[in-house]
Each structure stands twice: as C-alpha cells, then as structure tokens.
Amino acid sequence: MSPPPLHDPEESETDREQVLSILGEAIHDVRDRTKSRDVETAEDERMLIKWYRTLGTLSGQYRKLQKDTDIEEMEEDLELLRKVTDFDDRKRRR
C-alpha cells in the first residue's frame, strides 16, 4: 500500500486537517496490525513492541495537533466575544 498524498487537491481541507487525516489512517493501520499479529517468537514480540511504540508516537502527535486545533478555535471564539462585547459597550455609551 502506498502512502497517502501529502497534499489533497480539495481546497476546503486545511493542512492541519490533512495531517490529522493521515495520522488517523496510520493509527488505524497500526492498530489493525497489532490486533492480527501472532506472537510466536522473540522476534515477533520485539516487532509487536515496535508497533506499539509507533502507535504511541502517532497517537501523541495526533493529540498534540488536535489540541492546537482546539486552542485555535477557542481563540477565534474569544475574539468574536471581544468584538461583540466591545460593540455592546459602544452601543450603551450612546
């Protein structure tokens, strides 16, 4: 399976959304690999541990990127509240 393209031609999707999508797919792929893996030898066990480490790393990156998205959305909401509050203050002063 080839990796997904880094840039989707769909313009409505931001770079962050694209990366979240890629990370999400990778997390599902790794999770599927760990579920279907039979551990019969020490080498199998080492590989399974590596897959779990990869899963942890991908999950951490996904969480950080999602947290950044949440913070950005809260900043936008706060800015909107400030504008509305400022508008109301100016309206009352008249």
From TrEMBL:
Pfam families registered for this protein in UniProt: DUF8136
Location of the DUF8136 domain: 22-84
Organism of this sequence: Halalkalicoccus paucihalophilus
Superkingdom as given in the UniProt entry: Archaea
InterPro entries: DUF8136
Stated name of the protein: DUF8136 domain-containing protein
